[in-house]
Amino acid sequence: MNTTAVSKLLNVSPRTVLRWAKQLNLQLERNELGHYQFSEADITSLQNVKDQLTKGVLLQDITAEGQKKKRIGIVNKTEIQMDYNQHEFQERLDDLERTINRKADEVVSYQLLQHRKEMEELIKKIASLEDKVQKLEKEATKTEHKKEKVLIFDHPEQKTSFQPKRKNIISSIFGL
């Protein structure tokens, strides 16, 4: 029987069937297309797994014949080398931290220099504006003093709007 048929029989997904088969270390045969073929004994073992899981037994504690089997962990060589090279790892980590701190200090220093330049430029602009304001104030005070010293007679005559003179009544009657 193939994986799909077994999954329908057990009412689980095909991936679950393959996971259980791997957990039980079942030696499964393959057909010409490379698909797993399950024997009656394999299906019985998988049904046993499903029954035990239904009862609340953990997957790692389940075996095909109902015997308790503990999972055996595999220690990677990298973990063993890690113990031996822990000192070298710590040195490398410290070196990386120093490098990061140095780079951060360089960035901050550069930013401070840029801010300082911008501040100096702004200070120069402010000083220039202050000078211009002082000049304008001096000019304004000079013109006020000149206005105060000017006499009424110094002002040019103000022209009034043209109003015709009244002619006396007699001249108006005779048209003179």
Q: What fraction of the residues are assigned to beta strands by DSSP?
A: under 5%
Number of strands: 2
Helix-strand topology string: HHEEHHHH
Q: Termini separation (Å)?
A: 142 Å
Structure report:
By secondary structure, the chain is an all-alpha fold. About 65% of the residues lie in helices and about 0% in strands. It is built from six helices and two strands. A hairpin with a 5-residue loop joins strand 1 (about 30) and strand 2 (about 35). The radius of gyration is 52 Å and the shape is elongated. The chain starts with a helix and ends with a helix. The model is unreliable at about 65-70 (pLDDT under 50).
Task: Outline the secondary-structure elements.
Elements: H1 3-10, H2 14-23, E1 29-30, E2 36-37, H3 40-55, H4 77-84, H5 86-149, H6 169-174
Antiparallel strand pairs: 1-2
Helix pairs in contact: 1-2
List keywords for this structure.
176 residues; mainly alpha; 6 helices; 2 strands
Brief write-up:
The chain is built from six helices and two strands, in the order ααββαααα. It is an all-alpha fold and 176 residues long. A two-stranded antiparallel sheet has the order 1-2.
